[in-house]
Amino acid sequence: MKAHKTKFALLLTILMTLVLSGCMYPADEKATKENPYEDQVETIQKAVDTYKESSGGLLPIKTRDLETDRYIKYPIEFSKIVPAYTEKIPSNAYENGGIFQYILIDVEENPTVKLVDLRIAERIRELNLRRQINGSLPFKEAVGENVYEIDYEKMGFKSPLMVDSPYSNVQLPIVVSGDGNFYVDYSIELNKILSEKKPDVKKGDDIRYLLEQDNLVVPAYSLPYTVNEDNEPVFVGNIKSR
């Protein structure tokens, strides 16, 4: 009887281990798809640099329209660097089932690998689909020059749609420009940097660089910001990009 109990306990332990392993694996796998790993970005940066050197200055990027926003304008074409310059596509890359698109910024002076959080793009697509169904887009109060809040109730939503910030645990609102395009409002994050770090910024400059310079993820799907007289972030129209 004692041997039987021991055998049963052993089988129960094995079963529990298998169950726990099965529960933990999806979470671990999810983490590899949703975390902006610095080492993976560094690996792709080295591959890009090597490719550029061996190709006479060319970059491994896809072709986009010249009017495309600079944060999504130069997506990396992995087929040009994998496996010749790096072993594999990063686990968190969109092409490998992840949530990030690998892009280049500052392509003229210093091509730098950064990430775009594509969950934001999905949220904007959701709004565009609802607008197509409704046939119109209700605007609310202006929050900047030709930038408005969205009347979600008239669009058929029970509550405003938000996006998780790629920089902290806050949620960011979405705004709409006068031409009907949706953008993420990064004012909360910019205001935090301005008030806490007090960087030297000038009125008229696009201050979105404050978000990209110390982070792997860029503020994609956004409008330019500058500062007002109170050193607060405000939407602007045609301004210089840094």
In short:
With 242 residues, this protein is α+β, with helices and mostly antiparallel strands. The protein has helices spanning 2-34, 38-54, 118-134, 152-155, 187-196, 209-212, and strands spanning 100-105, 112-117, 139-144, 147-150, 162-164, 171-177, 182-184, 225-227, 233-235.
Verbal overview:
The strands form three sheets. Strands 3, 4, 5, 6 and 7 form a five-stranded antiparallel beta sheet that branches. This protein has a two-stranded antiparallel ribbon with strand order 1-2. A two-stranded antiparallel ribbon has the order 8-9. About 2% of the residues have low confidence. It is globular and about 50 Å long. A hairpin with a 6-residue loop joins strand 5 and strand 6. The protein is α+β, with helices and mostly antiparallel strands and 242 residues long. It has a domain of 81 residues.
**Number of helical runs?**
6
The description of the largest β-sheet is: 5 strands, antiparallel
Distance between the termini: 77 Å
Uncertain residue ranges: 17-21
Q: Give the overall pLDDT as a whole number.
A: 88
The percentage helix is: 25-40%
Evaluate the radius of gyration: 23 Å
Instruction: Give the class from helix and strand content and strand pairing.
Output: alpha+beta
Give me some keywords for this one:
242 residues, alpha+beta, five-stranded antiparallel β-sheet, 9 strands, 17% strand, ABC transporter periplasmic binding protein yphF
